[in-house]
Structure formats: structure tokens, C-alpha cells
Structures
1.
Amino acid sequence: MKVLKFGGSSVGSAETIEKVVEIIREASASDTCAIVLSAMQGTTDALIEAGRSAERGDDGYIEILDGIRELHLTTIEKLFGDDTNHGVLDFVDSTSKELDNLCEGVRLVRELSPKTLDRILRFGELVSSRIVAAKLSDTGLENEYRDSRRLIRTDSNHGFAAVDFAETNRRICEYFEDTTAKLHIFPGFVASDSARYTTTLGRGGSDYTAAIIAAAAGADVLEIWTDVSGMMTADPRFVRNVRQISHITYREAMELSHFGAKVIYPPTIQPVMAKGIPVLVKNTFAPHDHGTMIEAESTAANDMIRGITSIDNITVLSLEGSGMVGIPGFSKRLFDALSRALINVILITQSSSEHSICVGIEEKHASKAKQAVDREFEFEINVGRIDPLKVESGFSILALVGDKMKEHTGVSGKMFSTLGHNGINIHAIAQGSSERNISAIIASKDVRKAVNTLHEEFFSDGNKQINVYIAGTGTVGGKLIEQLRTQHQHLSDELRLNIRVVGVANSKRALLADEGVDLNSYRSDMAAADDMTIGPFIDAIIGQNLRNSVFVDVTASPDVVETYPKLLAKSISVIACNKVAASSEYEKYSSLKNTAREFGANFFFETNVGAGLPVINTLNDLIRSGDQIKRIEAVLSGTLNFVFNNYDGSREFADVVRQAQKEGYTEPDPRLDLSGTDVARKILILAREAGYRIEMEDIENARFLPESCLAGSVDDFYSEMTRHEDHFRRLLDDAANRGLTLKYIASFDDGKAKVGLQSIGPEHNFANLSGKDNAVLFYTNRYFEQPLVIKGAGAGADVTAAGVFADIIRASRS
Ligand code: ADP
Ligand code: ASP
Ligand code: MG
């Protein structure tokens, strides 16, 4: 014999009931079948709401009951057309009347006892099962209908009744002995107590009904038909790339369901496990999918982790106090007090100092728990031996489940470091000695992120999702987005990185999209987007709370820099093309680096020096491997190198500068380049990265630009340069007369940094630097005769964007 249970969504409409009928037809062709049915989807919730509304004394319940009736009547009409011989309409009619009366009674007395609620709730399963039974008969599938209340005997704990198995099993066996029918229909969820009052088996309890019948009747298999193709590695509503679990052990399934995998009601497993009856979870909407087989021994691949789940609405109770140390009995009294108050404990941890015990319970019991425990420990609290019970809400439990975890070391390490990397704070941890489950209590706001990150870590095909936010859509920002767009597939194929841009902002507007900004149309989408300044943009990023988040600053704005600490403290990596942060006061620079370290985030700014050239990375590698920087000599301004390489007297100096700006080599404000400030910032950053504590004021800057060029606006700057053309001409001629060329050189030697224009001879290392090239010479302990040289294009949107891109990848992989 087979037992098949169909859930609420499977019987949610006439169309789905037709599918159910076909599944039953196929199953019953070769075997005796017992069918257990849930209420139509949403009915139980609606009935509860009707009861509650009546209890509040309002008449909203009338509309709710009308809605329920309407759903059932239209379903019946669609299934049977004009035919009314099935008798279901009469049944709906009489039960509806009874429902109306019950709710009216509740409204009058303003009281909804659990007993009355059970009487209201029974409507759902009693009617849905009648409809299916009638439809089966209608299509020629003879069946016997039996009200489960006559078979399943429980205690009188309404809403969550405990089954009297001896009596129940006897009745079920008797029923099957006495019948010759081959197809049996039962309503799920409902049962009765010894006084024959209707009881119910807990939300989701139809699964349990089916398991009880399967176990009592010694079925060969229990099939749970639902709206997903089996148990998944995580809740499919939370995680996109869930995998279907083909085989799972009873114990794993039990852990998963206890810890929130709603697909199967937790008590279901117990009766079938005791009898060794396999459970098959199947999809009514894709009946040929394999589904999940739950059995004693899993024959599946040796996956270390079988699934990840979570339960929301958890309150954490902490009992603490110096008086607890070494004295036995405290925990017993705590649990006794909770159990007397009928509070179920979901998770327990006790630190080995015995200073505190921490338990997780359902949030709805919080105040009841507080009362019960404080009363139990009244004396100890009064004399100050322990503190009043601490009650904190807003938590969730996250659980990693798998029988094979105990055979692998490092699972919990990987779990917690993954969470830590994403800034998810762990409030408490519990690991059963069976090592089948590792649970952590975390803030509910982090659950989605946590489940997704862990799922990716333990189950993904290796692809890692990186969520990128970009501030700045100017020349470099624009190029970066273009590169990210065209390289997307390559990154996924080669590096297993799925880099998704989830936010883009300029100084006026921002676009945010959890699912990814469309990189083809972001400019027009942005034009249509709401105004948003950087502050709200950062708040939105933090609010989105996405895993593996990286913030990219391709602006030159100090305001954006101000937001870095907030981002880093949320474990969001910061990639700065913007030089303001690394070249601000030393304290600020080092505190950003420390914050990044403390919160497991990255703070990279490779493009601050030499655009896309690997200058800072090389320097970092030298230092990390134990080398020491003695001296640095560098040409660090693509703009100045371009200007002096192209200024030959045939046209004005100001014209050459203008060309550099037009080609995108200069800073947004070209005076930063021409004044040498930009070069000073770069040598400052290199010196700092080399381990020196140095400030901008410590750098000697021998300016070649007349002071007046730096006063006023950018337009004034150009006209002043024209006015001083003679000055520039003289610089050029003086050098040329001596057979020398002009280079703007930065140096760092013995702790001192300086920048300035120099005339160099043809033998100089920098003599052949053409165009906008940069060059950096590192003289170190290891490279003391010949320096380590890094040379290449040191400005330009393409190479700079590529450098930022490389930083993003580095941040993603570490
Ligand atoms: P039914 O009405 O058939 O009893 P449920 O709603 O009780 O269905 O259970 C099925 C739902 O369980 C799925 O639609 C899915 O959203 C949810 N679910 C939660 N966790 C998991 C998981 N790990 N695997 C599969 N489904 C899950
Ligand atoms: N109808 C009940 C509920 O929604 C039982 C079930 O569907 O399993 O909880
Ligand atoms: Mg269910």
C-alpha cells in the first residue's frame, strides 16, 4: 500500500485538483492507495483570521468566510459543471452555516478558545477532501471516504494535540482490515479527543496525518506531494541556485525540518522512521521529477552538508550570574520553569565558565518565559546571585545540517569565517554532539544574506556572487562599467565570479537593483531615477545587506571618502580610485586600514598611483616578503609627462595642457596635476605603504608653475598660463641648451619625500619615458644595485578602469 498526501497548493484550485486526480489514477492502478488531503491553499490561514476577527468583535469575519465559501464553490463548479449529484454542495452549505454560527458566537462572547478554533479549522480539510473524493468518483475512481477524526485519537491539547498511538493504530488497522476498497480518502490535520471534540495536529499537520496512517497500516511508501520537486539544499524562496536533494536520511530530514525547512512538518518523520517506511517528496506540478527520497541510509553522494535552513522570530533568553558557577540544578530549574509554562526550547548553549545559559525560544512566548523564569529564581535574583532573565528578540536561528559533517573537520570554521567575512554577527552557537547540526543565532535582518552566503560556500558549483556598487559615472566610471559588462561571461567561466553591479550613483542620482543594474541602459535608467545624494545611497547599500559587497569609488569627492568607515565597518570592501582617502592625514589613512582589517573587509587603492600599473601591489608584496624600501624615484604624473614630452615650443604650454585634459589624463581639476599636488599625493601614498608615517606637509614641492596660475577658476588658470608662456619657454630652452629634457620627478629617500621639475640627461633612467608613461624605481634591500622598475601608461580612463577592475577581482577572491 502507498500513502499519498497532497498539500494545500496541490488542491488549491480546480486545475490543480485535476492534476491530483491524474496522479492518484496512476498510483492506484497498481496498488492500494490511501490519500490524505490538506485544506485548499490559504484556507487555514483565512479561517484563523476569521476567528481572530470575530474575537476582536468586528464583523470582518463575514467577508473572510464569504471569500472561503466563494473559493470552494467556484472550484466545485469548475470541477463538476452543472452536475450536482456529487452532494458536495450540500456539504459546503451545511458546514458554512455552522462556520457562520461559530464565528458569530465567538464575536458575541469575544473569546476564541483553542477548542473553538479547532472546530473552525476543521472546515478546510473536511471540505477539500470531500471535493477530491467526489471528483475521483466522478472520473470513475471508486473510493472510500473516512473522516480521520474517527481514526486518530489525541489528547485535548487543542491546536497541537498529542496522538494516542495505541488507540490510533488500533483503529487504523481495524479500518483497513474491515474494508475491501482499494482507494481511501482521508482529511489531513484533523483528529478527535476522547470526548469526540475535534482536535488538530499543528500547522502543516496533514503531513503528520499521512505518516500516522502509513505507519499504522504498514505502507510501503509515504509520498508527500507538494509544490517543489523535493527537499532543497535551502529554502527556494530565499536562495536562487538551490539544489534538489535526491536522497536524505530520516535524521537529516528531521533536523532540516525542525530548523525551518517547511517542506515537511517535523513530527512527520518519527512514525515512519520507526517502521522504516521510506518517504518520497514529490512535485504535483512536475510529477516526473525525481523528488527526494527520505530513508534510513542515504545513498547519495558524500555531501558534507545536506542543507541550510533558518527559523525566524526567535527570542534569546540568557540566565546569567556569578551565583551560578559550580552549583548544580540551575539549568534543571530553568528548563522545568519553561516546560511548566509550555514553552518549547529550540536551542541551548552554555558557556564552559557556567556563568550563563542561553536558550532560543519562539518570540511569541517571550513575556511568558520572562515571568516564569523570574518567578522560579525570585530568591536568587533578590539576593543578587543571578540577574533577572535577559530577553532579547529579533533573532533567527541558522542551521547547517548533514550526517557527514562529523567526518569532516573545519565545517564550523568555514561556516563562521564565511559569516564573519560578511559582517554577520553571531550571537550564540550550538552544535549537537551528534554533529548533525551546527546552529547559530543571528539577527533576523542578516538571515537572507547568511543563508545565501553559506549556500554559495557549501553548495555552489564554485561560482561566487559579488555585489558591486559604483559611485561615479564619469570617464573612468563609464569605462569600468563597460569593462564589467563585456567581461561578465569571461569572469564567470574563468574565475567563477559572478560580478553583479547592484548600485550605481553619480553626484545627483542613484540606481539600486538587488537583481543587478542593467549595464546596457544604466545611463538612461539613471536619468529617470530619483535624486539621491551619497548619504542615502550608502544607507541604502547598508540596508540591502547583500553578501560579498564591494563599493567602488571612482569619484574625486571628499564627501564619498567620509562614508568609507561606515561601509568598512559593515564588512563592505572599498575600492578607491579616489586618492583623497589614502592621501589625507596619516591618522585617517591608517584608521581606514585598521577598520578594514577589523571587519574582514578589503580597502584597495591600486589606481591611486600609476593608474593601472601594479605599483602598490608590487610594493606590498616586497614588504610582505620581508624586503625594505630604501629609496623610490618615480615619474608619477601621466599628465606632466605628457605635457613636457609634447611641449617643444611649437605651440603654447597652455595648449598642451588643454590637450592632456581633453585626452582624459588630468584630474577633473587639472591644477592638481600642474601644481605637483597630485604627484605629491602619490609619493606620499607610496611612502606610507612602504611603512613610513608621513604627512602631505612633509613633502617638499618645488613648484614650476607661477603662483598666479593657481588663483581663480580653471579658465583663469589657462589664461594665466598663456600670460606666462615666456616662463615656460625659458624652462624649456634652459634645459635644451644643456642637452637636457624636463621631467617632473618624485623621490623618496631616507624618510624624506620631494617632488619637482628636473632637467635630466639622456643617460637618466627616465630619459626615454614617452607620452603619458609613468615609471617607478624601487631601491630596496634586495634591489640595491639595479632598482625594480615598473613602467607603462600611467594615465587614461581605460587603464585606470582596468586597474580598478583588478582591485575588484582581488577583493572578490580574498
Ligand atoms: P504544502 O502546502 O504542500 O504542505 P508547504 O508550503 O508546507 O507545502 O511546503 C512547501 C514549501 O516549503 C515550498 O514551497 C518551499 O517554499 C518551502 N521550503 C522551505 N524550505 C525548503 C527546502 N529546504 N526545500 C524545499 N522547500 C522548502
Ligand atoms: N491546513 C493545515 C495548515 O495549513 C494543515 C496542512 O495543510 O498540513 O496548517
Ligand atoms: Mg506543508
Note: The first strand starts at residue 2 and ends at 6.
2.
Amino acid sequence: MRHLLSVGDLGVDGIDEVLKLTDSFVEVSERAIPKVPALRGKTVVSLFYEDSTRTRLSFETAAKRLSADTMNFTVGSSSVKKGESLRDTVQTIEAMGVDAIVIRHGSAGAPWQVAGWAEAAVVNAGDGWHEHPTQALLDCYTIRQHLGTLAGRRIAIVGDVKHSRVARSDVLAFTALGAEVTLVAPPTLLPPSLEGWPVEVSHDLDEILPKIDVAYLLRMQRERMTEALLPSLREYTACFGLTRRRAALLGADAIVMHPGPMNRGVEIAADVADLPNAVIVDQVRNGVAVRMAVLFLLLGAGNDLGGNERG
Ligand code: CP
């Protein structure tokens, strides 16, 4: 694997390989000193043109646990503010000697452009509405952890699918691993065409909830909405929010997921996000181990994973 741009590039075998390796890094993360020397001497740079809490910190933690050096780039305090182009920024960073570039960008396709220019491995940490492959991998890992398998599981992805890179990557990964996916949203929050998407569609959350194993709530991406797609947020919550009443319609073993950041009280009720079957914190925790696996596969395959940090 040279880059990780789309989860679709991995195929079933590639996803399985990442998830299997993630088990090892979960074990490393549980050690008293959660660090291995696998990527000593490598440098990982985070190039984030959009805000992030989970993905940025998770990649940074993953790189450090693998003993890589890390560099952080923040648009707000960089020469992008003086007009520097993405290409010049990438060339500048590469000239300093980096082995991996983790990029988040508001434009779909930006990581592919960077991969075309850079010698370093490129990881897509979210590009516009398009893809968020490591989110999909950590979501698959979390579902396997709680439900054993994705094969035959019924997963509802609920909410703002139209603007969601998470939904696009999750549909690819979940269906590749054999899950049945239903998108649940008002028509205005679905993509204009779902041709080629291996999914069912519903506009009735109450009817879907008793039948599913996973309720995957999406954030209402108000920053990406350029037109009035909803009469009001209150009406959205009334029809599509996972309220306490609706959460009670789920089966006893069903889990609730959300990629974060959550709008508590909009797509998910504040108290539902904290129920025992809401595995949102597990998603974040697993994200570090999944990203360790991805960085290791890109930069360190063949190195010794075994020991703790030595000297
Ligand atoms: N899920 C996710 O991508 O969260 P951040 O925007 O905080 O990275």
C-alpha cells in the first residue's frame, strides 16, 4: 500500500489486513508504556486545511506511539494566509524530509493531487464531502468489536448523507464486509443521485429502528449547507433525531454510533449519546489503533512490532 486515499482501494482483503493489525496495536495501547519503535526515524506531518479534533489528535498519537517524529501544520498560522498554494506548501514540507503526509482538505480530490506531487505516503484524513477512509476503518473495527462481524448486519446511516464523507466511506467499507446498509434521511439530505450506491433508502426512522443492528447517526453539517435544505433544525430532530423514545425502539443488542463531533440535541439526544449501547467513545479509542495500523502498513511493514520502547 503506497497511499490511503479511498477505503475502496483496500478491497475486502486490505480492510481485513488493517483490522487484523489493529488488534496488535490495541494491545500495544493497553500496555503501561504504549509505545513501540516500529517507525523510529520516520516523520509524519499533519496537513489540516479544515478543523479537526479526533482525526488530527488520533493520527498524532498514533505516530508517536510508533516512535515516529511528528510535524503539525495549521492553516491559520501558516503561509497559506499569505497566498501560498497547496502544491508549494507540499513541496516545502517535503523538502524538510517527511515520510507521510496526513491531509484534510475542504476540496474533494485534494489528497489525490497531493499524492501526484509527493514522494511521501499520503493519507486522506477527509476531503470535502468525498471520503474519510480511516473513519470507515475504525467504524468497521468498532462494529466487529461489539457485534463480532459485519456480515449480514443491518446498518442504518441516518441524517445528512448529502454532505457526509463519512457516509460515503462507510457505505463502501460496510457493504464490502457484507453489511446491509439503509440510508435514512429527508430527500433534501440525500445525494441527488444514488446510482451505484449498494444501499436501501428510507425516510421513516421509526419504522427502521427495530430492524437494525447499528444506528449510525451523522452530524448535521451546517457549515456545508449553502441552501435551505430543512424547514428548521427542530423539525429535523422531530423526524430524524435519535431521541430517547426512538432509542427505545432499538433491539437489545443494537449499538449507536456517531463519528463526532456531535450536535447533542439535534441528530442525537444528549442522554442517548451516553447510553451503554452508544459506542462513540470506543470509536475514538479504536481510531488511534487503526491509524497506527495504517501508518505501520504505509511506512513500516516488516519492522519488529514486538517490544516496548527501548532506550
Ligand atoms: N470524525 C471526525 O473526523 O472528527 P474530527 O472532525 O474531529 O476529526
Note: The first helix runs from residue 11 to 29.
